[in-house]
């Protein structure tokens, strides 16, 4: 059985790799850092958990809550769905599709789970209207 990461094709796929150290996820974490004006740096599950529970160094309370409850889970779920599409349906992987899927989940979950009126990206900044 091949254990190579289906997203980067350059490392053994583990949970730590897939949700942290994979170059695809590093790209997503960097974009989310810019979009939220915060410092999201995740290289393994322990750091992911710390960000979801404690949301360190992420600015004001609203940003911490949005990152911990919506943004990080959306990125993780988008990655899992994308990875499974590549693995089980032989979908081609494009980083742009992973980003679009992540943003789509953030928009949907921001409105349904957080009660936001609208969630959108404006000039690469995430805007959550409550």
Order of helices and strands: HHHHHEE
Tell me the total number of β-strands.
2
Share of residues in helices: 55-70%
What order do the strands of the largest sheet run in, or round the barrel if closed? Answer: 1-2
Structural class: mainly alpha
Number of helices: 5
In short:
This protein has 130 residues and is mostly helical.
Molecular structure report:
The protein is mostly helical and 130 residues long. The chain is built from five helices and two strands. It has helices spanning 15-21, 23-36, 45-53, 61-89, 95-112, and strands at residues 118-122, 125-129. Strands 1-2 form a two-stranded antiparallel ribbon. Strand 1 and strand 2 form a beta hairpin. The radius of gyration is 14 Å and the shape is globular. The model has no long low-confidence stretch (mean pLDDT 86).
Keywords:
two-stranded antiparallel ribbon; Reverse transcriptase zinc-binding domain-containing protein; 130 residues; single chain
Topology of helices and strands:
Blueprint lengths: L14 H7 L1 H14 L8 H9 L7 H29 L5 H18 L5 E5 L2 E5 L1
Protein name: Reverse transcriptase zinc-binding domain-containing protein
Organism: Acorus calamus
């Amino acid at each position: 059985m091949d254990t190579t990461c289906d997203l980067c094709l350059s490392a053994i796929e583990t949970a730590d790799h897939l949700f942290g150290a994979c170059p695809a996820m590093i790209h997503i974490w960097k974009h989310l850092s810019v979009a939220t004006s915060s410092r999201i740096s995740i290289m393994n599950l322990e750091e992911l958990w710390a960000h979801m529970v404690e949301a360190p160094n992420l600015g004001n309370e609203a940003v911490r809550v949005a990152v911990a409850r919506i943004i990080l889970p959306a990125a993780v779920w988008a990655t899992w769905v994308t990875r499974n599409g590549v693995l089980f349906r032989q979908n081609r992987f494009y980083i742009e599709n992973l980003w679009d899927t992540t943003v789509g989940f953030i928009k949907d979950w921001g409105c349904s789970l957080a009660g936001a009126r609208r969630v959108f990206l404006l000039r690469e900044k995430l805007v959550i209207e409550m």
